[in-house]
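Example 9 (inverse folding). The structure is encoded as follows.
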């Protein structure tokens, strides 16, 4: 599998503080790579360095197998991007804005119309962009980034400020790009729920450090399951199970106090239930609780959920 983006010990310091701290990012061809982290974690700074908009303090960047610092012009010819909010001329139509980008990227007419069709703006191409909704402006920004049909598309928080319908449209669009057009996508977000629905691989960054990198399946495999057992006499039940080599953890599951067992197998749960029943302790409830991806994200980043 070809490597599209690779960084080695990438760092960026501002006022003596690391915004990006020795990040080793790897994005493979054909992926939708979700770059996930709380606000202020270092996502935008990293993406700006990949595009040459910010200079690294130290470290190396290779895109398409070539060093960015010595091949920047050629690399950017094969890269499209939307960083922060889209740039456009509000007094011009969507098509006129695309024509300007066409001249800058030196692409044929067919690219203009195809890019507008991909983002579903072909029927609104003659409307002034100042009259576009926020979602339409975002889609226009993506069309501008797609106009050269790049090998790599970098999107920084493309669903920010959109309503659920707009988010769904952008999500569907991004998911289709690798298979339909051979475009590798690197997308940043602070919302795990969004990345989970579109990404094939994910990198989680917090306080400038890359805390996890791998496939969505690998991230999901980090989920831990736990069993909670509630009885009519939890104190006696805990002593009995402890004496039998089954050690509960103190905790509260949901709204009710219960004995909590991390990683308990089905056979262990059956044995615990059998011991309690044989001892005459009534078992009220045995429940399995699976750790959510959100809780894994919060554990890795040490942050409360960003809204």
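The amino acid assigned to each position is listed next.
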């Amino acid at each position: 599998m070809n490597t599209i983006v690779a960084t080695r010990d990438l760092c960026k310091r501002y006022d003596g503080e690391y915004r990006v701290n020795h990040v080793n990012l790897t994005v493979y061809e054909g992926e939708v790579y979700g770059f996930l982290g709380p606000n202020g974690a270092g996502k935008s700074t990293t993406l700006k360095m990949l595009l040459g908009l910010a200079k690294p303090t130290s470290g190396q960047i290779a895109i398409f197998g070539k060093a960015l610092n010595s091949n920047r012009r050629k690399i950017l010819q094969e890269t499209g991007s939307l960083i922060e909010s889209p740039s456009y001329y509000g007094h011009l139509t969507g098509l006129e804005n695309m024509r300007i980008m066409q001249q800058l990227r030196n692409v044929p007419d067919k690219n203009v119309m195809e890019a507008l069709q991909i983002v579903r703006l072909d029927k609104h191409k003659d409307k002034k962009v100042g009259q576009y909704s926020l979602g339409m402006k975002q889609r226009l920004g993506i069309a501008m980034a797609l106009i050269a049909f790049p090998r790599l598309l970098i999107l920084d928080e493309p669903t920010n400020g959109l309503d659920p319908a707009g988010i769904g449209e952008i999500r569907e669009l991004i998911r289709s790009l690798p298979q339909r057009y051979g475009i590798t996508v690197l997308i940043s977000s602070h919302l795990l729920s969004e990345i989970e629905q579109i990404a094939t691989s994910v990198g989680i960054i917090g306080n400038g450090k890359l805390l996890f990198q791998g496939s969505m399946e690998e991230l999901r495999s980090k989920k831990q399951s736990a069993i909670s057992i509630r009885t009519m006499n939890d104190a006696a039940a805990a002593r009995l199970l402890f004496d039998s080599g089954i050690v509960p953890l103190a905790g509260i599951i949901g709204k009710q106090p219960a004995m909590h067992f991390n990683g308990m197998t089905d056979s262990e749960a059956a044995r615990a239930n059998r011991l309690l029943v044989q001892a005459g302790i009534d078992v009220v409830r045995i429940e399995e609780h699976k750790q959510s991806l959100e809780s894994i994200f919060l554990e890795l980043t040490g942050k409360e959920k960003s809204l």
